[in-house]
Input
Amino acid sequence: MDMKLMAIDLDGTLLNCKNTISKINADAIRYAQSQGIEIVISTGRSFFDAKSICNKANISTYIIGNNGSSIHNRKAEQLYLKSLNKNEVEKIITWLENESFYYEVSTNHKIYSPIHTREILNVELERSINTNSNIDTGKFYQAVEKQFSQAGFTFVNHYNEIIEKDEDLLNILAFTFNENKRKMGFDYFSSIDTLSTFSSADYNFEIVNRKASKGNALQKLAQLLNISLKETMAVGDSYNDISMFKKAGYSIAMGNAKEDIKALCDFTTKTNDEDGVAHIIYSLSA
Ligand code: CA
Output
């Protein structure tokens, strides 16, 4: 197989359930690079958050951040940026505030969330626990903890502070434990044609510039590196990976991906907790 560029998602893909990159996966990435394969981490997370995760695992790769809004090279230089229009962000935030959503706004430096929306999550969590006795509360707390542990995460007192920052606004993530509410928000923003709306995990949806997607960013990076899309591979587990599955020459679903994601892909590897990424890398050179 002639493969020169491999795009790898983070959550549910390269990261295990403890949100870290295993030594086996990190070794596999360094091995692929030593064989002349370019690696790009392609994630819904912000560049600086993804970079900090890679640094901890001692790997250095290209990074597609915020669902395709940015591309950085191994020296952390920005090669590409597609941000949201500020007036549009204000409209989105106002809607989310009116509908009582917890949300986060990612810039190219930080992740901001108004402090009062944290209380919304606590209330939703309590309500879910009270109305559903067989609910997996551990999974809920884990999901919340993951949001707050992102690098650059900062609470602000009022959403105006976010709009007034002199920073590019890249990604808005809304998060709720109420599935009907999540779907209502997802459907509302999906109907606005200047935006792109994805879900990257249970309980969330994310909004970016219409032109931003993991697939478009992969295409852009392949162009910059003079690599044909036929010689690219994408590995992922969720709906925000579909755009890159469609662009890449080879698409690989994680063993832990949902069945409809697996059905779209050329091949399914092992799960994220079984080092599925390392498994696919070593099977390429076998
Ligand atoms: Ca994922």
About this structure: Residues 9, 11-13, 200, 236-238 surround calcium ion (CB under 6 Å). The chain has twelve helices and 14 strands. The chain has a mean pLDDT of 93. The longest strand covers residues 169-175.
